[in-house]
From TrEMBL, chains A, B:
<dbReference type="InterPro" id="IPR015421">
    <property type="entry name" value="PyrdxlP-dep_Trfase_major"/>
</dbReference>
<dbReference type="InterPro" id="IPR015424">
    <property type="entry name" value="PyrdxlP-dep_Trfase"/>
</dbReference>
<dbReference type="GO" id="GO:0008483">
    <property type="term" value="F:transaminase activity"/>
</dbReference>
<dbReference type="Pfam" id="PF00155">
    <property type="entry name" value="Aminotran_1_2"/>
</dbReference>
<keyword id="KW-0663">Pyridoxal phosphate</keyword>
<dbReference type="InterPro" id="IPR004839">
    <property type="entry name" value="Aminotransferase_I/II_large"/>
</dbReference>
<dbReference type="GO" id="GO:1901605">
    <property type="term" value="P:alpha-amino acid metabolic process"/>
</dbReference>
<dbReference type="InterPro" id="IPR050859">
    <property type="entry name" value="Class-I_PLP-dep_aminotransf"/>
</dbReference>
<protein>
    <submittedName>
        <fullName>2-aminoadipate aminotransferase</fullName>
    </submittedName>
</protein>
<keyword id="KW-0808">Transferase</keyword>
<keyword id="KW-0032">Aminotransferase</keyword>
<feature type="domain" description="Aminotransferase class I/classII large">
    <location>
        <begin position="79"/>
        <end position="426"/>
    </location>
</feature>
<dbReference type="InterPro" id="IPR015422">
    <property type="entry name" value="PyrdxlP-dep_Trfase_small"/>
</dbReference>
<dbReference type="GO" id="GO:0030170">
    <property type="term" value="F:pyridoxal phosphate binding"/>
</dbReference>
Amino acid sequence: MLGELETGPDLAADLLHGSLGDPSLTSMNFLNEITGRYPDAVSFAPGRPYEGFFDRASLHDDIEAFHEYLRTGTGASEAEADRALFQYGRTKGIVHGLIAAQLRADEGIDVDPESIVVTVGCQEAMFLTLRALRADERDVVLSLSPMYVGFTGAARLLDLPVLPVSGGTTGVDLDDLRETVRRARAAGRRPRACYMMPDFANPSGLSLDLPTRRALLELAEGENILLLEDNPYGMFHDGYGRLPTLKALDTARRVVYLGSFAKTVLPGARVGYVVADQRVRAADGTGSLFADELAKIKSMVSVNTSPVAQAVIGGALVRGGGSLAARNEPLRARYQRNLARVLAGLQRHLGDRTDVTWNAPTGGFFVVVEVGFPVTNEALERSAREFGVLWTPMAYFYVGDGGRRHLRLSFSLLTDEQIDEGLSRLAAFLAAEDDRTA
Amino acid sequence: MLGELETGPDLAADLLHGSLGDPSLTSMNFLNEITGRYPDAVSFAPGRPYEGFFDRASLHDDIEAFHEYLRTGTGASEAEADRALFQYGRTKGIVHGLIAAQLRADEGIDVDPESIVVTVGCQEAMFLTLRALRADERDVVLSLSPMYVGFTGAARLLDLPVLPVSGGTTGVDLDDLRETVRRARAAGRRPRACYMMPDFANPSGLSLDLPTRRALLELAEGENILLLEDNPYGMFHDGYGRLPTLKALDTARRVVYLGSFAKTVLPGARVGYVVADQRVRAADGTGSLFADELAKIKSMVSVNTSPVAQAVIGGALVRGGGSLAARNEPLRARYQRNLARVLAGLQRHLGDRTDVTWNAPTGGFFVVVEVGFPVTNEALERSAREFGVLWTPMAYFYVGDGGRRHLRLSFSLLTDEQIDEGLSRLAAFLAAEDDRTA
């Protein structure tokens, strides 16, 4: 923000794209701004990964490991391997083979490497997919609600409406999903896809059970829509019986799988990917892979994903023998311990209050707390100013109404002491809000 | 392309976004495809930088130099500097201060670092700018013609029409520019900006002279449009009297400056930027920087530019003492030598032909040759198959008609021997085409 504009504005805001006034952007800006104003608050707001295992030597080693892999694993000369890291490169990326191997090893997903497009984080993967799917103003997408703001933001940028689908008690109300598709069609719209995080969703923390996953795939087939499966947190499970991803269960190419290495390798690489093995047929009868169509779009957005950044991820995959499970075991254990500590702390501080409840995810980064008062930005401001504790209002994650009495606690970044102190402050804040509204 | 689709298509191409059928994509695909089919041809097609100075040790050194700069130059602790490289970070980027210093040192451009958004290459910079400027279907942009396909591609992705402006003899026909703006307004459109590369343009090789630059700025002010100045090749001049960039001459914030490090540091970092110091005023009277609006869009496209990739560029800037001129002197000398060799070779092989002419840029990567026959994909195919030489049809770079008898020669990647052999083959091809059409 600028103060006075001495010479008048150069551009009028109402002549810029409407997404710039989107409430989800305003919400996130408020959260960032308040975080900046209260640097000493314990913050349950950010969903960033734990930083304790970052290691600069490992960064260099990963790059060198990928270079070595190019030479010994693919027969490239030293100069060819250098060129792969340094020059412009293949639009779909250069670590697709390693990603396909990791998907097989860690996720039980078996796909042709050619169906993978390496992207600038999962955000670009969502953006490319939505751009392809919006042919004109009739197209709409659905999302399980509450929903990740990065998804609604990407859709907003493309003037693509997002229809919310109720989460219900299983994470998705299948009847509501079917009805939403049919209502949209009856209104002349084209519902193209439904977005979801089946494992430890951001922001709800919830996972879909196996029958629900199977029912979703059947519904997608029956209603002729795609499922956009986003899976940033699946690796951070409880160690007992992980459920298969939708993509692993997908026999009819109904699922576009959105992947991220921000939580499993390094946020700073900004490398994600999309698995798009759907077949596209043109009017002239020729066929192509959906991944190749997405690559065309990518060539107009970012040309290709930095090969240097891809080398960081590629090296991590090579050094893990094609899997990231072992590399992530210390992180998984840490997030699980934090989750348990948050749940135990909530029980200790708030267990005797019948008007405060919370869910109990078995993995991921998030727990949602329901309270008896309106969870507004004003309440967040009081929480920060008077009690030194930050969190995220769940209303940010709803299109329209919803989440008005819920707040999200993220625990990925925090130490034991911060969790204990933060929950103690949170309990004091909740008590004060009750007094306010009593 | 797939062969038979056993189970029918999953997606119909006509339900995907129209940009996927854009002719510029098809053209570039043909060029890539033919390059793949004739690996032994001498190729004057790609505009990639020379690779001989790539150095992996230098890559690691650049990253470490930036880390060291964060600690000693900005007072960050070791952990804070690590976090800056590894974690999610500032949407507008972390090398903005160093870029502002380099713009001052190397380009005579003096801007507040806050007006810079670091992007995933210059392509994302163009994309963000065009997204912001297209508020609705009334908006259009202009481009000097012939034009860079990355620009038309980004505009196509946003359903934003591009109106071509004739290059004329000075690189831009100012009357045509003014008339194009006025005609568009009269037709109810909103011309928002005109795109150009004032220095050694891709594909024409031409530069705008100083009076033309000043006249352009005046015209932009008078007609109330922005100028989008793209400057990837300015560093590769002839060493005598570089002209100031439009942005350096811009006293009224009419120029949005699009920058790239792909040619001056490393393509594989995929780091570019946009300088957007325009002020935006909202209906409620509040103001913001255009750069901050572009950052909001970036948060929905790619979140932020890989800090690891930014560190590569940041380190190069630090090691150059805030300038890239010394680092680029060997490259500049090489490109100048190649340019001179191409011009001399054309004279030697074709100097006695009155029906073949070419321009004589004083820098950059490109020379344009005009011939007496139609320069089509079929001609390119014959050139590759029968003569082993590749180039780019200039028609690729026109919206509508234009460039039908012109081809672009790019010489950035080639050795002396490749240039000599390639021009000898080109001369033989031209003679054969004359025989065909005689």
